[in-house]
Amino acid sequence: MAARNRMPPWHEKILLANGREVLVRPIRPEDAVPLRAAFVLLEPDEVRQRFLHPMKELGVEQAERLTRPDPRREFALVAAEPLPPGEALVGAVARIAIDDNGRDAEFAILVSHYVNGMGLGRHLMRRLVRWAKGRKVLRIYGEVLESNLPMQALAASLGFQREYSGDPGMIRMVLELPPPKPKLPPPLPGMAAASR
After folding, report:
1. What is the 8-class DSSP label of residue 186?
2. 3 state DSSP class of 132
3. pTM listed for this prediction
4. What is the mean pLDDT of residues 34-53?
5. CB-CB contact of 98 with 138 (8 Å)
């Protein structure tokens, strides 16, 4: 009976502190239009903290790019109303992309002021870290404005360290992940008995 209520991978319903329910799920191409619509509702400071420069709108091409991550090296989640994609208002987006070296990955998170301060950013960051571990990433980093103290505090509370960024006014938050444990071959028959 419980199997009927099972959700697809990376899908989960979360009850926020304000009593609203959001669905955290992988981003989909149908989210491009709602993302563009939600973008104009963001405050200028929210946009600057995520995109690191002012933007009046999210362009069609940029929205298409955000909603079609390369599954081999990118992962993106949205926190949206529990409605079908294309109809649901998106309140938060979290993205991670593996660098060409295959060891490092850059994160970015945007949580709108409508759902800010309710633990959603922390939840999304934990999901990005989990995905990165599954891809055997060794280091997660994100460029954060020096003035974005809430994002720095969130990252630090999850074990990220501050590093100098080459860009003025920026801080790089870095999380070193333990290397994956090597898979040991199964013991040969008779080996356990011989070692006694």
Report:
1. P
2. helix
3. 0.81
4. 66
5. no
